[in-house]
Fold this protein.
Amino acid sequence: MHDGYEFYLFLNGSVSFFVGDSIFSPVRGDLFIIEPEISHRAISRGPQEYERFIINLRRDRINDFAALDPELSLCFGTVEEGRQVRKVHLSSDLLDDYCRIAEKLSAAVYLKKPCDDLLVDSYLTEILVSISRVLNDSRDADGAQNVPDLINDVKNYIFEHLTEQIVLEDLSREFYFNGKYISATFKKYTGMTLRSYILEQRIMLAKRLLREGGNVSEACEHSGFLDYTNFIRSFTRIVGMSPGKYSRCARAGAIGRF
């Protein structure tokens, strides 16, 4: 789960790709545009090498690019539409062009030569224009497998009780299913355990509290963590930086790669 948009281009391998309430079996050239704070996870299903190209775009950059041309907003779904992910398939020629530009973008980001910031914006603009044209010329591709109602009901329950202690017995009483069955079904259709999902949701809540100006202790207390040390350790492992550093970066507007 990210604070910004993710452009996920599948290249090679055999994976199940879990995005929000849907499951995909992507093929080479499938491009997913994932809304901010939507849980997504790819699980390899075979011995083949798994290859993909990912671009994460901060929310505050959306307006920057949309200001250049409103048509670029086609790349982004809206909350009102209830969209979690858009999926399109790139033709062989478009895929080659996308990968070529993406490789240049990657080099500009990591080599940090003079004027590379200008090149980053140029390459991102070229990619967004290409995607917008594909979206304008085609309908969203299908192929998603919807998850059972039970999974969505469990997710809603977790959301409503996120700051409380949640155990399998609670879910079993609420939904009249054996706890082990709920746990196994949840992992089958989301790619993660209940415990991991609850932890991920609490971390996302803590991140939002920190972005809104809360301090680390408040974020810990109001996101369902009972132990401060466990909160610091879990947050750092999942986010890649400590809550304090995340808070400072958020205040400086430096969250996200682009």
Notes: The chain has a mean pLDDT of 84. Strands lie at 5-12, 15-19, 22-24, 30-34, 40-44, 51-57, 85-89, 145-146. Residues 167 and 215 are 28 Å apart (CA to CA).
